[in-house]
Design goal:
The protein contains 2 helices and 25 strands. By secondary structure, the chain is mostly beta strands.
């Protein structure tokens, strides 16, 4: 009787042990290792770059996942993974590398919340009969250290109008800026003597005047210059995240020889016969040394009067005040 009881208890013990071992085997979860991203080795990718992700999958029971995806922090984008190992082809062994196949690779600009500043963060989720396995932890993200931003382009069409003018003219600088991500441009320019690149005006800042950045917007600014002769404008900039790869240049010229007159004035607008009237004007020229002594005249009726030079004026380049006092006939 005792031996039967012992046998019965032993049978129960073996049954419990078997159930324990069976439940332990059923509880085994897939293991994910060695995640990777392609293209690899990049710190930045364009927004329209197709991205691939993969990871090694291992299931102790040889179970295929019901679903296997890669998803991304801050966005709803996800992509399915497919098995590349030989056992997957005949449904005998799911263990091996799983990856996003070519035709379903998501574009980089769909993988971050903020194109320009954000880096791609991702993780994998394998679902096997309601059991979820992720890389390390399902509440963490894998940092790729890959930022998403398309390098903006400055088209080689920078122009200054007019292409030739006088020292006090207003000039307009314009250029086409394109950013596939639609970012606004931060565009600046330097204006320097062509023969002496260290002699420059204050830098210029350009703003959008027409168009759309994603297809090409015109950025421009109006400016004056204190320089003369041949002048080179160099335009550079980007989208505040990355600079355009190329700066662009344009040239124009400012007349240094032709003088001009400004601020004409008369001492009175009403005068009688024999009243004295003073006529004044400021004579300006860029290169006073190379243009010789000026002669400034005023014609009153049919009489021509030479004006006498007075003091220097700061209202223009090499300004000189000329005036004449005459009696109205």
């Amino acid at each position: 009787m005792i031996s039967k009881r012992i046998a019965f208890v032993s049978a129960i013990s073996f049954a419990v042990l078997a159930l324990f071992l069976l439940s332990s085997a059923e509880a085994a979860s897939p293991v994910l290792n060695t995640p990777f991203i392609e293209p690899d080795g990049e710190s930045r990718v364009d927004g329209n770059q197709a991205m691939s992700f993969g990871i090694d999958y291992s299931d102790p029971d040889g179970d295929f996942p019901d679903s296997f995806i890669v998803h991304f922090e801050g966005v709803s984008t996800e992509a399915d993974l497919e098995c590349l190992s030989g056992g997957c082809l005949d449904n005998t062994n799911p263990n091996g590398t799983w990856t996003v196949v070519d035709m379903t690779q998501p574009l980089a600009n769909t993988l971050v919340a903020n194109v320009g500043s954000d880096e791609i963060s991702y993780n994998f989720v394998a679902n096997t009969s309601g059991e979820y396995a992720c890389y390390l932890s399902c509440d963490s993200w894998i940092a790729s250290n890959v930022r998403v931003n398309t390098i903006p382009i400055l088209t080689d069409d920078a122009t200054v109008t007019p292409g030739a003018g006088m020292p006090e003219d207003t000039y307009t600088l314009s250029i086409t800026y394109t950013d596939a991500d639609g970012h606004a441009g931060a565009i600046s320019a330097t204006v320097c003597e062509t023969s002496n690149a260290s002699n420059c005006d204050d830098p210029l800042s350009l703003s959008k005047s027409s168009g759309d950045e994603s297809t090409g917007a015109v950025y421009s600014t109006d400016f004056t210059t204190g320089l003369g002769g041949s002048i080179t404008v160099t335009v550079s900039g980007g989208d505040t995240f990355d600079n355009a790869e190329d700066s662009r240049t344009a040239t124009f010229s400012v007349d240094t020889e032709t003088p001009w007159l400004k601020n004409p004035s008369v001492s009175t607008t009403s005068a009688g016969e024999a009243d004295d009237v003073t006529f004044s004007v400021v004579y300006c020229v860029f290169d006073s040394a190379g243009t010789g002594d000026p002669t400034v005249q005023v014609t009153v009726g049919s009489a021509v009067h030479a004006k006498a030079a007075g003091g220097n004026k700061s209202v223009c380049k090499n300004g000189m005040d000329y005036s004449v006092n005459t009696t109205v006939a």
